[in-house]
Amino acid sequence: MLAPPMAEVRTAMMIQQWRRMTFLHWRYPVDDVRPLLPAGLTPDTDDDRVWVGMLPFLMDEVRPPWLPPVPWLSTFPETNLRTYVRGPDGGAGIFFFSLDAARLPAVAVARAGLNLPYRWSRMGMRVHGDLTEYRGSRFAEPRGAGYRLRVRSGERFPEHELGPIDHYLTTQYRLYTVVAGRLVSVDVFHPAWVLHRAEVLELEQDLTTAAGLPQPHGAPLVHSSPGVRTRIGLPRVIR
C-alpha cells in the first residue's frame, strides 16, 4: 500500500494547524468496515484487512484564508475515527466514521457545509513534556461515547525505518463525504509529517463501537507528530 500523491490546493476554503497529533491504527476484517461505507466507496485493503485509525490532536488557528484566527473559537481538541477507501475513480482517500470536537460552532458549520459526522464533545488535552493526555465524552449521546488516552512521544523515526505502511496511514490528501445524496471529495494539502515513536500508557475508548465497529483486538500501531499546517480545498462532486 503506497501513500497517494500530494494534493494541490490552489483555492483553500479553510486553513488549519494540526498540533500534537497521535495516530492509533488497528486492522479490521473487510466485512466489518464495508457495510459502514456509502455507495461508491470501497475499502482500501491490506492483505484482506482494512486499517481504522483514531487520531486525537489539537486543532489550532482554524480560519478561512481571508480572515485571522479568532481566540477560543479557532483552537480546540479534536479526535477523528477514520478508515481508508478507494473512490469510484480508483483514487485513495479517507472516510470519517466520526469527528469529535469541543466547539459547537465548528461542529455546526462542518455538519451543515460538508455533512461531516462531527459530534460536540466535552474534551480536554494536557501536555507534560513528552506525555500527552487526551480525553473526550459526547454531550448528545445517551452512552456518552468517548475515550481516555495517555501517550508518551519518543525520538523521531529515522527515515530509513519508516516503511510504506507508515507513510500510507499518515499521509492522505483526500476525504470523502456525502452531501445531499451525492458523493463529494475534498482535497487537503499539508507537508510531510515529522513522525516520532510513541508508547500508549493508557487507552479506554468506545468510539469504535459507537461507529458500528467491534472493539479492536490487540495493541494499535502508534505514531506521533508535532503537527503540520494544512490547506483544505473546495468540495467537488464525483460524477
Description:
With 239 residues, the protein is mainly beta. The protein has a single domain, classed as Beta Barrel (Acetoacetate decarboxylase-like), CATH 2.40.400.10. 11% of the residues lie in helices and 52% in strands. It is built from four helices and 13 strands. It has helices at 30-33, 104-114, 164-170, 207-210; strands spanning 12-29, 42-43, 49-63, 76-86, 92-101, 118-128, 131-138, 146-156, 174-179, 182-189, 196-205, 221-233, 236-237. The protein has a seven-stranded mixed beta barrel with strand order 1-3-4-5-9-10-12. Helix 2 (104-114) links the parallel strand 5 and strand 6.
Please mark out the parts with pLDDT under 50 across 5 or more consecutive residues, or reply none: none
Structural class by secondary-structure content = mainly beta
Helical fraction equals 10-25%
| CATH architecture call | Beta Barrel
N- and C-termini, Cα separation: 26 Å
- Determine the strand fraction and express it as a percent band: over 45%
In total, the number of domains comes to 1
Count of alpha/pi helices? 4
Mean pLDDT: 93
- Rg value: 17 Å
Which CATH top level class fits? Mainly Beta
Name the CATH superfamily classification.
Acetoacetate decarboxylase-like
Number of strands: 13
How would you spell out the order of helices and strands? EHEEEEHEEEHEEEHEE
* CATH fold-level name: Acetoacetate decarboxylase-like
Shape: globular
- Lateral strand order in the biggest sheet: 1-3-4-5-9-10-12
- Major pleated sheet: 7 strands, mixed, barrel
Protein name: DUF2071 domain-containing protein
InterPro entries: ADC_dom_sf, DUF2071
Pfam family, one: DUF2071
Organism: Actinoplanes philippinensis
